[in-house]
Amino acid sequence: MKTSKVRLTKDSWLALALDVLAQEGKAKIKIEYLAKRLGVTKGSFYAHFPDRRDFTTSIAVYWADTLTSTALASLRLTKGNAQERLLLLMQKIKDDDLAKYDIVMRAWALDEPLIAEQVEKVDRERFEYIKSLFAEMGFTGNELDVRTMIFQTYHSLSPALQGSFFEKNRFKHVNVTHKLFIQKIDEDL
Q: Is the dihedral of CA 24, 25, 28, 34 positive or negative?
């Protein structure tokens, strides 16, 4: 009886690399280690990536595309006012765990320029989308920029800060946070 070998895709390597990065750290992002985890030889790696540099760049691009660009593209197609779309974004961030690799990617970016370039691209893309929602709600000037920055920072860091504390009341937590973000600030403060 012949056994058939499963042909791995490029995305198989990249998805595993992100998981290993998040769970075990960047020191474990080694070709041999990943090949062993996937149950293949290093030749499988070289069928998809010419070298380590291309692999590193591909990890960052994969992270940017799958957890930001694709998500924002689908959100741009949704109907509803800006407040409803902001709530939908917040729910999607939680439901699809879109920020799960943010902290490890940012840490890796500190000493890897190829990663830093993609992190900056993601930050810009997220910032512009979020800012457009707040602008549509009528926020302007410094309040618009600061609100956008706080929203982006909160959602990027919250998976590490919340842990399981909020998980049991996740839906309620999203709604309360949404109300906080759409609330106008008394300009006399």
A: positive
